[in-house]
Amino acid sequence: MVSRSALADGIANRADVLGVEQLKPGMKGYGLTVFEGTKPEKFDVEIIDVLYNFRPRQELILVKTKHPRLEVAKVVAGMSGSPIYINGKMIGAYAYGWTFGTEPVAGVTPIRS
Fold first, then answer.
1. What is the predicted pLDDT for the residue at 9?
2. According to the model, what pLDDT value does residue 98 have?
3. Do the Cβ atoms of 71 and 48 come closer than 8 Å?
4. What is the dihedral of CA 13, 22, 58, 63, to 10 degrees?
5. Cβ distance 95 to 62 under 8 Å?
6. Are 86 and 18 contacting, i.e. CB atoms less than 8 angstroms apart?
7. CA-to-CA dists, residue 37 to 3, 40, 74, angstroms
8. What's the rounded mean pLDDT across residues 28-55?
9. 83-107, pLDDT tens digit by residue?
């Protein structure tokens, strides 16, 4: 049986997630989303930076995304909630896209601050 401990603030100590304090600009990883049908596809991500207090007591991870569909569309409605991974560890979920941007940049809500 695997034992996991949760802290009073609701944050579990898990080895399969990275907090924002561990992220550095230039780190590369991937996300998973469904562009068509039901099969998840990988798209590349690169950390731009972390915006602290993007919202009160909430950080935002800025990433550049790369995938043939994102090169054209920049963002795709419906990608919210897509998991994002760096070094095989989850950092959060795709949450924001800017429609009028010239580059495919997205905001990721951290899984752990």
1. 52
2. 72
3. no
4. -130
5. no
6. yes
7. 37, 9, 20
8. 91
9. 999 999 999 999 987 766 667 788 9
Alpha carbon distance 35, 59 (integer Å): 27
Half-sphere exposure of 89 (CA within 13 A, CB side): 15
- As a whole number of angstroms, the longest Cα–Cα distance in the chain is 49
| C-alpha torsion sign, points 95, 98, 101, 107 | negative
Tell me the average pLDDT of the chain.
Answer: 82
Is 4:17 a contact under the CB 8 Å cutoff? no
CA atoms within 13 A on the CB side of 44: 8
Chain length of the chain: 113
pLDDT of 51 > 50? The answer is yes
CA–CA separation, 54 and 71 (whole Å): 26
Structure tokens at 99: 């429609």
Structure tokens belonging to residue 33? 């989303």
